[in-house]
Amino acid sequence: MKALQFSATGDLNALSFIDVPTPVPGADEVLVKIQAAGLNPSDVKNVLGRFPYTTLPRIPGRDFAGVVVEGPQALVGREVWGTGRDLGFFADGSHAQYLTVSAKGVAHKPTHLSFAQAASLGVPYTTAWDALERSGVGKGTRLMVIGANGAVGSAALALAKIRGARVLAAVRRVEQVEVLQAQGFEAITLAKPQDLGSQVNAVFAGGADVIFDTTGFWLPAAVAGLAAFGRIAIIAAPVDGHVQLPALALYRKGGSVVGINSLLYSCEQCAVMLEQFGRFFDEGLLPLPVGLREVALAEGTQCYEDVNQGSADKIIFLP
């Protein structure tokens, strides 16, 4: 089969489009014929050596959608989607024509999603779902999402709306505010960090119950915007990994910080999440992805370079 593979890290030139043996599923595994596979920034960072636990040689790629062609008879022929920490790190990933994965590591693909659409959602939606679950977002929760125009932020808005939360979207630019308002969300333009507390309190009197920072920049400032016993969920940090946290203000509010890392979850654990929120696409409660850039897998090495150079396109490989 054709696949993208790297045998060394540190340079995207190590990634090649080559022929490799088609994998053979083991006991309790399925062989999935990949119809579409998403390219995430973490896939690029993986080739660049940011994840020292990756074993080599390795086919990268975490998100996929396809058809089961071998495995338990009940699953053969099923349209499935999946994602998980193992793929591309400890086991070969989805940037190939075929993939083997645990039979419990695939979820039924929502019928309203095309293969390409399903392949674009794994990492962003499981990350957002985990953030809302672990920070206790439910009916009536006052939630602020910082970086609400990004993939994870957009997923968090949509999922929080289904949960009945009151949502405030925070973005950098006025035109982004206008787009979010047109979608029915309350939105503000982020100002200076020292102004964040007053901005939040102007909308949520007494502060937000949960602030989800998807950018890695606003954690210290977010403390001023918390309500009593509030939670700040984070998925990113500055380059050096450190921030100066106003601990006195945080503990006086009974506040807490919740770290969210999608790489803590196996394919089987992610499949449970996908089943839980996947039905909302078929029920018309979640927006269908648009604006995807569908690319032949043979052009994959250039796409990795595009993402590394800052491209915001959501790239989907079609093997």
TrEMBL record:
Highest taxon in the source lineage: Bacteria
Supply the CDD domains for this chain: MDR_like_2
Task: Show the Gene3D superfamilies listed in the entry.
Answer: Medium-chain alcohol dehydrogenases, catalytic domain, NAD(P)-binding Rossmann-like Domain
Q: Which SUPFAM superfamilies match?
A: GroES-like (SSF50129), NAD(P)-binding Rossmann-fold domains (SSF51735)
**InterPro entries recorded for this chain?**
ADH-like_C (IPR013149), ADH-like_N (IPR013154), ER (IPR020843), GroES-like_sf (IPR011032), Lipid_raft_assoc_Zn_ADH (IPR052585), NAD(P)-bd_dom_sf (IPR036291)
- Enoyl reductase (ER) domain boundaries: 10-317
Q: What is this protein called?
A: Zinc-binding alcohol dehydrogenase family protein
